[in-house]
Amino acid sequence: MRQLSHESYPQTSQVPPWSDIDTVMFDMDGTLLDLHFDNYFWQDFLPVAWARARGVDEQTASSKLHAMYSELRGTLNWYCLDFWTEQLDMDITRLKHEVKHKIAIRPNVVDLLVKLRQLHKRILLITNAHPDSLNLKLEHTGIGQYFDNTISSHLLHKAKENHGFWTALKELEHYDPQRTLLIDDSLPVLRQARSEGIRHLFGIYQPDSQQDPQLCEEFPQIVDFEHIMPAHHPDAAGDRDGSHE
User: Fold this and answer.
1) In whole angstroms, what is the distance from residue 124 CA to residue 27 CA?
2) DSSP class of residue 148?
3) Dihedral of the alpha carbons of 139, 141, 144, 150, in degrees to the nearest 10
4) Which of 134, 185, 175 is nearest to 30 (CA)?
5) Res 197 pLDDT > 60
6) Residue ranges of the alpha helices (H) in the chain?
7) Which domain, by its residues, includes 130?
8) Which residues are catalytic?
9) Is there a contact between 175 and 122 (Cβ–Cβ < 8 Å)?
10) Which of helix, strand or coil describes residue 149?
11) pLDDT tens digits for 211-241?
12) How far apart are CA 27 and CA 183, in angstroms?
């Protein structure tokens, strides 16, 4: 991981008001998991694989793919592995399995999830990832055990940055937006959540460990989850029971 000096940390770093929060929603890629896996797959690995399958040079394949990416970014199809499998005539899920060794949990994620469970917060994983990609990453990392529910935006037929997503989510998860924290690396997602009433919103300073940070003054940003760890609560003597949805 590219090392960051303390001088480069965002000035907006702060700790969420945990006593005012009942529900904690986490994004997955770029938030709990290093975005390097996804960037590598879509920017490097897939163009090469598609070029070989089509019998064209890598530059031509890469240019065509990036044009498609630009057109579809922010829509549900951008995140849909079924869509890309059909468009490219390649098994995208199988290709992702080929490079799954690059999937990595960000530092101190598990420690934070354990602490939030001890504090009896409701912990949700809300991701734009296609269910096949979600399942691959949960199986590879083992983090699924810490969540009360994991929801792919494909279930709601909207991407998280699309109008109405967070309102529709309340039909599945009857959360109170005023007592909910969302942590997400996407600025469009955070903006949409804010417009639909979610009160506590945090971004991620460096979603991809191999790329430069993305400084944003619009929302507080997390450099390391250790920095927002809740203080010990006297009633948090143990974990909740092991049942999960």
Assistant:
1) 9
2) S
3) -80
4) 185
5) yes
6) 36-40, 46-54, 58-72, 76-79, 81-88, 92-98, 109-118, 131-141, 165-169, 187-195
7) 16-34+105-228
8) 20
9) yes
10) strand
11) 999 888 899 999 999 999 998 654 443 343 3
12) 6
Tokens (6 digits) for 34: 């290093």
Q: Which residues contact 172 (CB under 8 A, 6 or more apart)?
A: 149, 151, 155, 156
Structure tokens at 168: 């529709």
Q: Domain containing 207 — which CATH number?
A: 3.40.50.1000
Are 127 and 150 in contact by the 8 Å Cβ rule? The answer is yes
155 and 185 in a single domain? The answer is yes
Which helix (H) or strand (E) element contains residue 202?
strand 200-204
In which region does residue 23 sit, left (phi positive, over 0), alpha (psi from -120 to 50) or beta (all else)? beta
Is position 1 within any domain? no
Closest CA to 222 of 190, 192, 183, 181: 183
